[in-house]
């Protein structure tokens, strides 16, 4: 319920390769409850598990884990074989090197490299030759390798920087969910920078845990945004502890031992605000319940702190472009 929802942009972007190949995906969308109305509304959001099922469905339908964005397809099962090849390495550095070596055996595969920069390590992607107008494959590959590495060592790898070989895209506001670190656009390469200390860490996973991991990954890695260490993420976790009680800014500031003015300033520096965070969380909780039959619309409104269902109706349409009733009708 507390997971961040996925912007409809990523659904449209993920379908780009299928459109390019002339694949009719209308049946798949209908099966997943993704309506044309939701797909065409820029403000609409999807539940993470719904997005994961879409990616898995596209992989199977297109017979390509690159979803039609690379110069040659990657047969379903390639990612799993790479993981099996890497899982017995003694540390993260060896596992990443072996994983990258695995994909280098395919001449047309997107090229990823690992390089040292003093105490830092940079994972770089050569995305110059990809057919990837919405940068979906570039984003996906960087996210997957980062989160795979974090899973292997049992702790989140803190990113110091993410660079991209293209200008900031229209959906750039969503990048804080993908890459919670300083961002640089128009760079020479698309890459991730992190501290080299992670490379020497031993792998905490094995064949048993890998089997469970591969039941949903890497689609699951793409569908679960990285909350990171930002103040906005910390506040979201704090607010989501009890969605029936919504503390005001003063109470949250007191909990964090800062003044309300300081809290506002720090959030402004991150490009956010307290009200925006509350609205995003309420939007995501609403979408969670609308996708299920556990609560009625008035009950959802009450849980989210709205005095009247009509106020919830107006707010939800402002957040997503759809009414709660219309959204539930598409989901159930």
UniProtKB/TrEMBL annotation:
The keyword Transcription regulation applies. PROSITE patterns: HTH_ARAC_FAMILY_2 (PS01124). Signal peptide: none annotated. InterPro entries: AraC-type_N, Homeodomain-like_sf, HTH_AraC, Tscrpt_reg_AraC-type_HTH. Keywords: DNA-binding, Transcription, Transcription regulation. Residues 233-330 form the HTH araC/xylS-type domain. It holds the Pfam family Arabinose_bd. PANTHER family: HTH-TYPE TRANSCRIPTIONAL REGULATOR GADX, HTH-TYPE TRANSCRIPTIONAL REGULATOR VQSM. This is AraC family transcriptional regulator.
